[in-house]
Design goal:
541 residues, mainly alpha, two-stranded antiparallel ribbon, 39% helix
């Protein structure tokens, strides 16, 4: 993460670096590799800020949901999500090349910092050590993301020569993970807690953030006892004080940035660095130009009732003719549906009518029509809507990559897998999340002691989906749970606006294909293998 005040120092050099290291085979020809560059700690910080900015693009953050069963990319092929979701791709798809190049660009930046920062004379030794630790966490993050998508990858613990870059082989996934964990362990021992940083350093990686990333790495590997140990430490305050922000909806507003829940974020600042994906995701009547990514009916159906029951459960009270009544409040804070009470920038409310003919006055412009630039599913995205947006819905709200709620969910999942889930675990994790969301019925907030381990597993998994919906994490969950081939084969659906004879009237919006024999890993980009013949290909490609 980056302190917003420092962006003005990094824009030019960041662009220069990005143009100079897009492939492993290119000889870097930018100022970060010039031995005369490393003359001050301010310049070292500029390089580090660039590494922070390369963590994740806002496009990936949002459109990754289109890779999962949470959303559908119905306009174009943003971030390759339409092609990947439909299973109609090969190793030449631009998303694979872009993911590979951008993450190795981030690794290169970190390696240049680590190999050159000791050239800075008369610098504070502790500050140098801390910058190195930050760079090592960022380098670990990039390797983790690469191996999560591609499996075996080239591990770069130094900036390679041209010869190395064009001949390096793939390192086994297990070895990459060991490297990532080792880097994080070393950094955790060095980095300050968030309380030890000055307010002007808000956004920098803390020891707590590094430990939370370690927990996520372990989670994806299914190393349950270690996940429990890491998350217990965070919940006990061993690496800083973290807590759920009191308001779920307020958590995603600019007024509440750097809250007690924000652990690791992509940093933005007004004018100089902003994101604008909701321009193609929010309701058109709210100022969007079209809809490219829309929540699915499958996501909407996953939100439970206020009494804690699934909509399909007996006695849930679910009414298909009034489907959004008495539902998990997080649905309203995440998804815009027909009849939605939309809060305008001035604080007033208006009703958004999406289903054709639903406006009782007959005068409103419906937000859905088949084959138009409007939503393809009958739903829009609300989460991360910025009331203080600029033109074209440009926003500077930080996008959270890891928040404390995820730590609680990781802890719950690990404890259940270990057979250690009990009433105390429930109260500290799922129960706390539901109370923060707005549940008051004891049937939803009290410990369900009669559930089997498998039933609790499904409850926790669904809680992750509801709590983290439209935050880009669902695709990683369904891949690690090995259920992607079950939930990503067949039709993705929209609201009940269609012909009754087809799926009971629910819109069929996209037919998806996920081949379990190969799609759990992405192919190594074709262009990279053309450059380096030692890069083998994943099975099936």
């Amino acid at each position: 993460m980056i302190n917003k005040k420092l962006y003005r120092f990094m824009i030019f050099l960041g662009l220069l670096l990005m143009t100079g290291c897009q492939r492993l085979d290119q000889v870097p020809e930018n100022q970060f590799t010039d031995t005369t560059y490393w003359t001050s700690i301010a310049k070292a910080q500029t390089a580090l800020n660039t590494a922070y900015s390369q963590m994740m693009s806002s496009s990936y953050f949002f459109y990754n949901e289109g890779l999962s069963d949470n959303a559908y990319n119905g306009r174009g092929d943003n971030a390759g999500t339409a092609s990947i979701a439909a299973g109609i791709f090969d190793a030449s798809l631009g998303r694979f090349k872009s993911e590979w190049n951008s993450r190795y660009a981030g690794i290169k930046t970190c390696n240049l910092i680590l190999e050159n920062i000791d050239r800075v004379h008369d610098a504070d030794a502790e500050e140098i050590l801390r910058i190195k630790a930050e760079a090592r966490v960022l380098r670990a993050w990039q390797h983790f993301m690469l191996t999560t998508w591609f499996g075996d990858i080239p591990l770069l613990d130094h900036d390679p020569t041209l010869e190395e870059a064009t001949s390096i082989s793939r390192t086994p996934h297990a070895d990459v993970i060991n490297f990532v964990l080792s880097e994080l362990n070393d950094a955790i021992a060095i980095l300050p807690t968030k309380e030890e940083y000055a307010a002007s350093d808000n956004g920098k990686i803390t020891s707590g953030a590094a430990l939370a990333l370690k927990a996520r790495v372990l989670l994806y590997e299914g190393r349950w006892s270690e996940v429990a140990e890491a998350t217990d430490a965070l919940m006990n305050g061993e690496k800083g004080s973290y807590a759920l922000f009191p308001s779920y909806s307020g958590l995603f507003l600019s007024d509440n940035e750097y809250s007690s829940e924000d652990m690791l974020s992509i940093q933005y600042t007004p004018v100089q660095r902003m994101w604008g994906e909701l321009f193609d995701m929010a309701p058109l009547s709210a100022g969007a130009r079209l809809n490219a990514l829309a929540p699915t009916q499958e996501l909407v159906d996953s939100y439970i009732m206020l009494n804690g029951k699934k909509i399909s459960d007996s006695g849930s009270g679910y009414d298909e003719n009034s489907p959004y009544t008495n539902r998990d409040p997080r649905l309203t804070y995440t998804v815009v549906y027909n009849g939605y009470q939309w809060q305008n920038e001035d604080g007033s409310y208006r009703t958004i009518y999406i289903k054709p003919g639903s406006d009782p006055s007959g005068t409103a412009l419906d937000e859905y029509s088949s084959g138009s630039s409007k939503t393809s599913t009958g739903y829009y995205i609300r989460k991360y809507w910025d009331p203080k947006h600029l033109n074209s819905l440009q926003s500077s709200i930080n996008l959270m990559l890891i928040r404390y709620a995820d730590v609680l969910l990781m802890n719950a999942e690990a404890k259940n897998e270990l057979g250690q889930f009990n009433e105390g675990t429930w109260a500290a994790t799922i129960g706390a999340l539901r109370k923060r969301a707005g549940f008051t019925d004891a049937a939803a907030t009290s410990y369900p002691s009669t559930l089997s381990q498998e039933q609790m597993r499904q409850l926790i998994r669904n809680e992750r989906r509801s709590e983290l919906g439209m935050e880009g994490l669902r695709i990683f969950d369904i891949r690690r749970w090995k259920i992607a081939d079950k939930v990503l084969n067949g039709w993705a659906h929209g609201a009940k606006y269609g012909v009754e004879s087809e799926d009971n009237g629910y819109l069929r919006v996209n037919y998806r294909t996920f081949d379990a024999s190969k799609h759990y890993l992405w192919p190594i980009p074709r262009d990279e293998r053309n450059i380096n013949k030692n890069l083998t290909q994943n099975p099936g490609y």
